[in-house]
Amino acid sequence: MAVTSSGPAASPVRSTTSKAPNHYTELSRMVTGSGLMRRRYGYYWTKLIAAPIVIAVVLTVFVLLGDTWWQLVTAAALAVVLTQVAMLGHDAAHRQIFRSGRWNDWTTLVIGNLLVGMSYGWWQHKHTRHHANPNKIGSDPDIELPVIAFTPDQADRRRASRSGPLRWLIAHQGVLFFPILLLEGLSLHASSVRRVFAREQLRRRPIEIAFLAVRLIGFLVLVFLVLSPGIAFAFLGIQLGLFGVYMGMSFAPNHKGMPLVPADVKVDFLRRQVLMSRNIRGSRVLDTVMGGLNYQIEHHLFPSMPRPHLRQASGMIRAYCQEHGVPYTQTGLWQSYAIVVRYINRVGLGERDPFECPLLQQRQAV
């Protein structure tokens, strides 16, 4: 029987790990030998061709409908389509589509910057650090957000600097997490624009700026040409809000409420990726809805594995983790959201160790 867990494990790791055998090397040989790392060109070319066609169809419907409140339905449809396209860009950025790094880079630039309006350079800078050290304090940007506290120390600092209603909001931040996602779409666009104009080094900066300008400015011009101001602002609110919620609800279950790793602790690669990640069980429909992100453990262990192979790989990897005593966390979708809300709330209330992870607590100092 596979090692699974229905609950979270989110206490900080308190000690450095003992030297462990490199089980990941053995697992990698098994996965590679099974053929699960081979490219799926037919699958991805179908999606690459379909993406711009579907966007064009939605925009054509938008223009033909004209100035009507029915455009709010179009806005919702566009939010879903753009999220699915962004997930395809995520696959390309992880080198899942082509063998050539250059082909993957340009595919991501076109999908991310031109079609979705998100900077590839910004995403790459942020997401690479997350994959290297998921849930590691001081290293993972995904647990260093300005609005929500994900660690007890963050919550302590914010409580000390705020009073009255703001302190109450921190204590109840879990229930605010999903409403805040309504602003995530706007935040993603804003972060992308800031990144391409920042002084930090950025490959293909002129291309990124040009693609983003065409996407963001061109889209705004189109919306206000077709719609009256009131309907236009409502359209943008629905489209950006649902885009942010869909993106956030796809990524949030993956690591929130899983163990936190202090800055001075080292964990071997296999456990670093498995113990800090959570899978979401479900059908192939869920696989499509979440863009394969429901197989977060497999994705973190083998980021370049094509999305269609993740489901098959999960059985092999789950069995391997059972054999080597590594907890493999898997929950239902709604249960994962409940875990996230409960964990964030308990951090906001000041609990130092909201949940426990037995394996990590057992690992002794060198």
UniProtKB/TrEMBL annotation:
Keyword field contains Transmembrane helix: yes
Q: Which InterPro entries match?
A: FA_desaturase_dom, Fatty_acid_desaturase
One GO term in the molecular function aspect is: oxidoreductase activity, acting on paired donors, with oxidation of a pair of donors resulting in the reduction of molecular oxygen to two molecules of water
Region (Disordered), start-end ranges: 1-20
Q: Which UniProt keywords apply?
A: Membrane, Transmembrane, Transmembrane helix
Pfam families assigned: FA_desaturase
The name this protein carries in UniProt is Acyl-CoA desaturase
* Segments traversing the membrane: 44-66, 72-93, 105-123, 168-188, 209-227
**Single GO BP term:** lipid biosynthetic process
- CDD domains (UniProt xref): Delta6-FADS-like
Show which residues constitute the signal peptide: none
Question: Which part of the chain is the Fatty acid desaturase domain?
Answer: 68-331
- A cellular component term, taken from the record's GO annotations: membrane
